[in-house]
Amino acid sequence: MSRSKTIPGAPAEILTAAEAGRRLKLPLSTVYYLAKTGALPGFQLGRSWRFAAAELDRLVQRQPASARALAITDDAATRHFIENALSAQPCTVAQAANVHEALAAVRRESFDLFLVDLKMPADEALRFVRHVAEDYSLAQVVMLASFTDLAQADELLQLGPITLLCKPLDAVQLTECVSWILRARPQKSVCARKKLPGKKCASREQ
Predict the structure, then answer these.
(1) Which residue did the predictor score with more confidence, 71 or 205?
(2) I need a surface site. Which of 19, 86, 122, 137 has the fewest CB within 10 A?
(3) Long-range CB contacts (< 8 A, 24+ apart) of 127-134?
(4) Could you say which architecture CATH assigns to the domain 67-184?
């Protein structure tokens, strides 16, 4: 009777993309994007992605570097909730009450994360996300939406691997989501400022 052999160094548990998403509490689109960019350790078998559970667990335990986030919503209570919820994270939070303030902020400095409230007038959230996509990965965008906004959120999710959090916000879920995105981000932030002739665009070292 033959015995199965264990290959030395082989991971004890291999996950599919869907299983990795459930383990990390990430949308499937975000898992695929992070895997393709190398931010999430995995390997391809044909067209399918597979992930070593131990590698994902090590990544989760890694402490994220200091980061800068921008919370964009016309609801002051939500902005303060986000700032308070993330106070225990290595992340400082800037606030913008509308898209005009948000665009001014990204012209002044670079950010590692954007938390955008979908419930803003005149499709402001969509306009801001499209602008941000010119300089940032959409994996750095967290969209905040209520269940009644999900149809509108679908248009934004088609743009790329945006993370969606449903309101009312839960502090634990918010901090876990932000913590994971900060751990998985590239070593250098993409600068938000447009490069102008004769001017350097400073990037932030992580």
Answers:
(1) 71
(2) 122
(3) 127/99, 128/72, 128/99, 128/102, 128/103, 129/156, 129/159, 129/162, 130/159, 131/103, 131/106, 132/106, 132/192, 133/159, 133/160
(4) 3-Layer(aba) Sandwich (3.40)
